[in-house]
Fold:
Amino acid sequence: MARFIDVPDGMSRRHFMNHMAGAAALAAPATAFTNSILANATDMRKRHKAAILLWMGGGPSSMDIWDLKPGAPTGGPFKQISTSADGVAICEHMPLMAKQMHHMAIVRSMSTREADHMRGRYYMHTGYVPNPNVEHPSYGAVISHELADQVPNLEIPPFVSVGGGSVGPGFLGMTWAPFVVDSNGNVRNLDMGVDPARLAQRMEMLATIEKRFIGERRGASADDHAKVLDKTVKLMTSPQMDAFKVMKEPKDIQEKYGTSGFGRGCLMARRLVEAGVPFVEVDLGGWDNHANIFPTLQDQKLPMLDQAMSALVADLADRGMLDDTVVMWMGEFSRTPNINGGGGRDHWARSWSVVVGGGGFKRGVVVGETSSDGKEVVSEAYSSQDLMASVLKSLGISLETTFTAKNGRPMKIANSGKVIKELFA
Amino acid sequence: MRSRLTMLFQVVAIFASAAAVAAESGVADHYGIPQVKFINEQISSGWTESGLQPSPAATEGEWCRRVHLDLIGRIPSAKELHQFLTDSSPTKRPDLVSRLLGDDYTDEYARHWTDVWTTVLIGRDVTNERVNRPGMRQYLRRTFSKNLQYDRFMEELVTAVGTNANRKNIDGFNGATNFLSGKMEEMGVENGVQATAKTAQIFLGLQVQCTQCHNHPFNKGKQNQFWELNAFFRQTRALRRFEESQDVQWVELVDEDFAGEGGNPEEAELYYELRNGLMKVAYPVFVDGTEVAKSGYLPAKMEDGTAYGVHRRKELAQLIKASPFFPKAIVNRMWGHFFGYGFTKPVDDLGEHNPPSHPELLDGLAERFREQSFDLKELARWLVLSKPYAVSSRSTAANVRDDPALGEKPKFTHFYLRQMQAEELYESLLTATEAGQAARGEEAAKKKDAWLAQFIIAFGTDEGDDATTFNGSIPQVLMMFNGEMVKEAVSTGKGGFLDKVAGSSMNNGAKIDTLYMAALARKPSSSELSMANRMVAARKGDVVGALQDVWWAVLNSNEFIIKH
Structure:
């Protein structure tokens, strides 16, 4: 049988919806479920806010990319070049990004304390240090949760992670978990292999079992399971899944982003945001450069990053999407200003840079400053929660928002971080 | 064939009465095992202190399912379930546990704990070239087949030497080397940082990795502690070996004299850097402050017969074995395995900043485990025969606030739901569809690895950190909905499970009962049965097709995939 999902909007889909209208949804009230799948998918293009996080797993050395120290003994061999933003210089191996810096802002005064990969990863994704008693929601969960209402017809997951796992939804629940895909946009096991009428019958049987088990008060995971089933059915039958198909993009655009997995991921991020997805994370690992850092950066990491990131920023700007789309670049921490015996740099969190742009952010600026050897922040220092508060503000999300964790404890959004005022006009 | 299905039908018939007996048969009983009595007393007094009431006992079918999943990593077969439910002996529970821990199930027990410990020791990431997963598994299977004492197990892993892959023409295979073979080097720097961190985490329940770079802000860990522990691994090298002209490689773990970074092997030191840039020196000192000789030489004798040198990893294994954290760490890990939550969360963090929910129980079980010669099967027996393991997962008004998902310390008043691990789901699908017997051996293990690989996400760090999407999210549901494995399970091919059930002489109701018993260890409720009958009617007499739909729904349900 043909793949049902490939039929965009024709008979099969309507046929399926008619069947599903009879089958109760598992978790949500049946009406809400069928209403949303029956809704017209053409409203999707209306303006909406979104964020794209370029996550650099392993901890990239920001002093070799965004905050060079040419004269310093441990500054490394890279030179800096001027950019399209007045007075802003970055690494010579980022020539394409140099032409886009008028859209972006560098925060050179990040100072954090978590220099272990998993702890840093958690902290930079959530604004909270790991705590054994509560799991905090990550950027993707918070932003997709807060912006979910702006695209009511979204049938694909609101939080997509490309090429990596991101960090989970914590107490917001599995509904806001990242949907993980590889950079080719392949989603496994989409093909139902049975006709829609039959799937609808199966779902009805399944709903009976799910509801009985949920009704026995065994715990939240029974309920969560049903919610995810609902979302899966929605996604399996949605023409919006087309957004994952990077290869449908015109060849010249594909070439701009490059053929690397990260390049394709960035292009997919743009397609997903266009389709209404409020949060996409694209992962590029391999920054844990304890040895041979300079050849690794120069020959491998930076050219790939430069091409894909610059293409993404330029593409968003060209399409008029940048004012509504925040782009962020960061890893879990940075690397030591000292160069170790193996020609590498080790973990360092005390003074480092992140890059943001788009949304309501001020463009073409540098925030903060580090000392001449890069070892200290010499201006006001900012934390993960400050960055998160700023990103949320630039998306128009209220910083007064308070979540209730599962234990009933109120949790202020972004851990009460303070907005980085220099990022706003 | 026919007689077996008739028997299944009988299972269903006796099910209700067996469940009734269970409620009275005194699950509070400790079966004459003092360690079980100790657990029951400790847990009960926790209930009293916090003003909570335990839930009633789980049904016999639920308990039977639990104990199979947790001990041998799969749900019970219809036959095993029948045998248990029809057993009227008052010692049926300890008898079943003894069977599952005994000779009949040696292979399955070893397979399950091999899965569990493979993940603990080397993670799920299959891309680390310095780790040979078949080699690791081979070692673990042998270890768990003979129920090697846990202290010996730790010693073998921590002191392993030899080659990590079992290949023709390669001498000195020792699968235990895979624990350390991938943890000695990072990006060309051979300093055993990961070996240090993982050894402390797994065998002592101490998270020392943060103190690698700095004094820990929240616990008492100091930077020197990390590097002094790390010094124990400095006589060890993981050497990459290549077979000429072929793309075959393996790792040989060897011990060598350590010259010391200061150039004096008599006092072989290493240097580490403080955050202010100062260099400090470290010699091997255990986490409790015990020092060992500073020599970097391996034990040897001079010409005049005088012995010198020290084997640092062997010294470390002895210190670990003597440490009170050693039995506590494994008791906590095992408790977490059987109860969904350990006494601390995460189970491998017993630092002072993270106090346990039941300190006396943890200490007491740790002592008893040491007294029992570190016998893992005995420890497992105590836990599954205890009262908290027998309570229902259904919460009551008197204990609904006992919910560790809310950040409360667990009180174990009811059985906490948790999803099967991917490995357990895989084996359970094979069991439910009676396809399990065909799938054994290394070929089957490779097939399983390939299936598991679809869920793995690597984080791109040198430490090989990974996560799984087999976590209740959409990719997992898609796999259960449409994946090959489930398609096979619900296929109506000749001689397959559904074909056999459909072709039997049972009436339709009994056929549906059979599916429910096979997957959920219970009969369908009346509303489920009527829904299933409606599906038979809708398919206009295509019973096989209707059974296929019911079976698909049962296997996709929360009740199937959640341990409860």
Observations:
- The domain at 49-193+238-423 of chain A is CATH 3.40.720.10 (Alkaline Phosphatase, subunit A).
- Residues 293-318 of chain A form the longest helix (26 residues).
- The radius of gyration of chain A is 22 Å.
- The CA atoms of residues 22 and 74 of chain A lie 68 Å apart.
